[in-house]
Amino acid sequence: MNRFVGNPFVWACCVALMLWGNLSWAELSATADRRTIAMGETLRLTLLGDAGEQPAEIDLTPLNRNWEILSRSSATNARFINGQNRVTRTLEMELAPLREGTLTIPSLTTGGRSTTPLAIRVNPEPVVAPGDELVLFDASVDESSVYVQSEVILTVTLQQAINLDGGEISNFDIPDAVLENLERRSFQRRVGNRTWLVTELRYAVYPQKSGALRIPAVGFTAREVQPGRSLLGARLGRRLRMASEPLEITVKSVPTSFPGEVWLPARALTLEENWSIDPASLNVGDSTTRTLTLTARGLQGSQLPPLSSVQGAVNIPELRFYPDQESIDQSELAGGLQGQRVQSEALVARSGGTWTLPEIRVPWWNIETDRLEFATLPARTVVVTAIQTADQTNDPTIAPSASPAGTTLPLWLWAVSAAGWLVSLALSILLWLSRRHTAGHSPTPGGATAKYGSVRQALVEIRKAAVQEDAALLRKAILQWAHLHHERGFSSLEALTRVSTKSLATRLRAVDRSLYGDGELASALEGLIDTLREEPALQSRGMGNNTLSLYPSQ
Fold first, then answer.
1. Residues 6 or more apart in contact with residue 289 via CB below 8 angstroms
2. How many domains does the chain divide into?
3. Which domain holds residue 92?
């Protein structure tokens, strides 16, 4: 490694890569915490800039036409992600509308980049209930009639024109429903000559049975804070006890026309696929990974069904399928939750040919339009080309190319050719000696070849050996992977087992037993690739070449 330290070319490349990484992240965006407000209320506008963008220096003059800027704050955050240094800068502002109607937060520009305009609906000033109430508490839902297992947004709202201490909302339970907490929101509202602090607690509710769903009353308790202070701190006044009105929602059953096995009532649903290598341009032994992503707005991640694998949909003996670990996640959007399910499957071609993978259709119910829809991926064609082997090259039926009849090479040309061959041989020997000196005392087991140039390629060779069910070739590929991954050589699978994690050691022993006819290779290979990918390097565990080991590998 020392030979690279003083190389100015290497340093220049590193600096260029860091600069490119920062520039690749450069962007500017604007988001509002609410898209519908009332006169007298406020909203929070967040400007996010990456790399060279400076949101704090942005010209905010275009906002003055429709908005009053009440406050602003900026922050800078630096993170190191995937080998790249990412710097994010934010500017948060509290805005109050100057008039009713649909107002636009205009495009704001800095550093040659601009934000996307945002449309905000501003309703008339709300009317406060008659009386001298200074604290208001209620609950509401965004829908009064929904389908079973679809999303309902429950909002519990506290409005206070006075200071409160020890505010607490009672725990509540909704029978026959799943409850998910959403982000809490706070803003100010001005009505007449009085300023109100508004706090919204939001929940995503998913009814689990049809019929009437009753949401019980939600209780609230707090103490009023009076002006002035005492020796013990704030002066506390009367205790407030309030409760919302119970709510009832009509829950509709699954439509009889729905054809799917899993009921999916969503606001939007998409199905996408991605291939690591185009399935229409594979060679025998190649591996490609198909990743399917199912995303639904208005559903939890756990509600999304597993997608049918290629192996489960068709039976193609010439293709091997290895499913990877699937992931289920969900995130919060402005209108509720968005669920996502991602699953991958590796495909390995064992022989040449052309096959068709069937289309994938996921039925779902659009609750916005109240009709059946399908998320579809078209059928895919897999084309595998058979690579010419050494046996085919030596086939006596294939006539070697011959020189034209009656032609012979001059003697001087033979001499020049021989001299060139000797020079090439000398250069090859010198290159080999140089590489041997650089490699030190870590010989490559089994002889290093070009096909084992990286850890990733070694995994590819392991997968090929597994497809061919060649135990000897598999052993060689695993040892080469270990040499590249751990940066040290191993004479046997047993030696590698001694320094491996428990999960990998178990699989290595199974492979080793199959080499000597004591065990079935197919069962030994289950999960081997995934286990190798998850195996930490010896250096990261303090077991590199510079440390002492209880079990030497040689």
1. 275, 276, 277, 324, 344, 345, 346, 347
2. 4
3. 2-123
